[in-house]
């Protein structure tokens, strides 16, 4: 069996895993009493029904079910239960997560749907747009699209300065420090991560609407990535910045770079501009090459390199994004057959080590380089959701499994 045949097999395996693993698991996390989805399942598979419900978690779950439904329709296998799950998530976003007084989406809610952390973060606004745009596509509900554009204008009006997107705000949108999206001992005024996911959200909003204002902002973000975030000397993105986009730490985030590579290529495809395709592909092919050469060890991807020290642990989302990123790299430049081979190998690592085989579980949060689970990391928490692994499955099915 050659690699192209193996790629189709991988797509079929991911379809099975999506339908019989990821989707049923997250359906069981649905809270029919207070709305949304439960926010915590421990490593020992103990569900905490009174845990905080992250609004990012619920946006991503809503996005996931909306896209799973849209894919099921495209496959000629429309599963209305997926649309019902997306609607359940949407109602929770609309009625509980979005602040009706000051606008925007909260950071988190208590288990009963009342506000827990009223911080307004640009990153969080973006993921709600991502969910609402996809739910609109799945359902045709124009109210969801209206809410998406309200958040789009809120980001552009309240979450920007003269150089780009700011990060964290109080409930009434006064700037505050950015602990939530800062790591590695620094406090960042701007981050690559927030910029990337605003880009991702706007790409989805443009895809389902064709709106010219969104298109303009998408091009502006691409210019900012090229001019201020991408480091052509080190062939990587910088991660944490001061207000003026000066990098404040020597950090190489392998997972974000391979994720960025395919998301930028997706963005220029939706944009439909040959100028931006050429400009951004010059960057994305370098990012893909660097990650393959520096972070990939033949079976999986290291996490990051902080001040020259590599974290060799394997994070669930980094492995998922690597599969999509390597497949995208191969599709963009088919002569690089090694990228497809790399994606196949990472999928084998995921199947063997990252997917938790225990009844009632999903993926481990973290495993060692050798594939041993790191005990204590939860299976569900505010950041651990079906966004990365579910999206991996759907992307590979669309790219390699449709009409095959």
Automatic annotation (TrEMBL):
GO terms of molecular function: cellobiose epimerase activity
Record's keyword annotation contains Oxidoreductase: no
Reaction catalysed by this enzyme: D-cellobiose = beta-D-glucosyl-(1->4)-D-mannopyranose
Coiled coil: none
Enzyme Commission designation: 5.1.3.11
A Pfam family assignment: GlcNAc_2-epim
Signal peptide: none
Domain of life of the native organism: Bacteria
Keywords: Isomerase
Example GO biological process: carbohydrate metabolic process
HAMAP family: Cellobiose_2_epim
Family: Belongs to the cellobiose 2-epimerase family. Belongs to the N-acylglucosamine 2-epimerase family.
PANTHER family given in the database record: N-ACYLGLUCOSAMINE-2-EPIMERASE
Function recorded in the entry: Catalyzes the reversible epimerization of cellobiose to 4-O-beta-D-glucopyranosyl-D-mannose (Glc-Man).
Name of the protein described by the UniProt record: Cellobiose 2-epimerase
Organism per entry: Roseburia porci
Upper classification of the organism: Bacteria, Bacillati, Bacillota, Clostridia, Lachnospirales
